[in-house]
Amino acid sequence: MTKKVLVTLSFPPDFISGFEDCVKLLTDKGFAVEVDARHRSLRTDELIPALQGVYAHVASAETLSADVMDKAPDLRIISRMGVGYDAIDVAAATKRGIALTITPGANADAVAEYTVTLLLALTRHIPEIDAMTRKGEWKTVFGNSIYEKTLGVIGAGDIGRRVVRNLAGFRMRVLAFDPLPDETFARNYGVTYCALEQLLAESDYISIHCPLTDDTTHLLSDKEFSLMKPSVRVVNCARGEIIDEAALYRALADKRIAGAALDVYEKEPFDADNPLFTLDNVVLSPHIAGMTYECRKNVIEMAFQNIIDLSEGRKPAGLINPEACAE
Questions:
Q1: Region label for 207, one of left (φ > 0), alpha (ψ between -120 and 50) or beta (otherwise)
Q2: N or C end of the chain: smaller count of CB under 10 Å?
Q3: Looking at the predicted structure, is the pLDDT value of residue 179 above 80?
Q4: How far are the Cα atoms of 111, 242, 258 from residue 248, in angstroms, in the given order?
Q5: Around Cβ 139, how many Cβ atoms within 10 Å?
Q6: Does 80 qualify as catalytic in the annotation?
Q7: 272 exposed, middle or buried (CB, 10 Å; 0-12, 13-18, 19+)?
């Protein structure tokens, strides 16, 4: 019996270089591939009927709860595009023998690149200057240089380390907070691992790259913002819930910190009346840090290959719950 693979993209496949070649990876192995025509993450009431008869789901940002899995009895693999899987009930998947995979490293270059882009746009007021120039105004706007300033990296995993490498030419002092220090990386790039409190107090720029867990939810709230310099700028391309948005709004509105650049939010899609949108010291984008043509192809290829590996008895590097796989 042919195994069916459901792909739920959050954008049309035309935006992925060589998408048909990627699909061929699966069809050449005998899989039947269905790409959902809505080209967005599916709501639960849409996802359940779409999963009927599906062996593997190549997932975007869908919520896959125990209830959804119970109503998808043929589902054996959830292949998540990206590295975040907080919307998936891992324990429920494991209990039901459903393997969960992610695509580590596939979007890391794109997210790290975009993080640096946001940091520079924020500190040099690029959005403000662009808007001013389009209105025909010719005036001087001063920004801040990042050369020889202190960068604090919260979460020095794959993406966090790439941000540090990308910024190496700016001769920044780098502090990192991470439960698993990489001493070789620290020596090679002059990184000092330290407590979160020291990082918050000493950094001129803070970039967030840790995963969302119970321990990191609202990792930055009123207390943490009170420890920061008034001149600090915070960039978040990880998960919105890591920052307490209400606390961030208060810190920005009261000018207790200088600015923030956000690609992620506590609620996504965000509400149009989000109070952060009223502030002039924030740069905002709609969770697109990983959206490059090159990156999307890498992610899709890895997500598809994860399905092939599991179906042929191999355990891919991005396998989150190996105990779900029969020996």
A1: beta
A2: C
A3: yes
A4: 22, 11, 11
A5: 7
A6: no
A7: exposed
pLDDT band for 17, please (50, 70, 90 cuts). Answer: confident
SS3 state of residue 264: coil
CA 224 to chain centre: 22
Query: Tokens standing for 287?
Result: 């969770």
Catalytic residue among 80, 209, 233, 239: 239
Task: Say if residues 224 and 251 touch (Cβ distance below 8 Å).
Answer: no
Element (H, E) at 205: strand 205-208
Dig out the tokens for 177 from the structure.
């907070």
Q: CA-CA distance, 220 to 230, in Å (whole number)?
A: 15
Q: How many residues does the chain have?
A: 327
Q: Which residues contact 293 (CB under 8 A, 6 or more apart)?
A: 15, 16, 17
User: Does residue 327 carry a pLDDT above 60?
Assistant: no
Average pLDDT over residues 127-140: 97
Measured CA angle at 149 (ends 203, 130), to 5 deg: 100
What residue type is 253 in one-letter code?
Answer: A
Q: Name residues whose C-beta falls within 8 Å of residue 314's C-beta, 6 or more positions apart in sequence.
A: none
287 is catalytic: yes
Q: How many Å apart are CA 240 and CA 216, to the nearest integer?
A: 11
Whether residue 254 contacts residue 226, with contact meaning beta carbons closer than 8 Å, is answered with: no
Handedness of CA 186, 190, 192, 198 (dihedral sign): negative
CA distances (Å), 161 to each of 177, 235, 291, in order?
12, 15, 19
Adjacency order of strands within the sheet including 32-35: 32-35, 4-7, 56-59, 77-80, 99-101
**144 pLDDT higher than 80:** yes
Helices 293-311 + 19-27 axis angle, to 10: 0
The H helix count followed by the E strand count for the chain is 12, 12
**From 57, 287, 296, 301, the catalytic residue:** 287
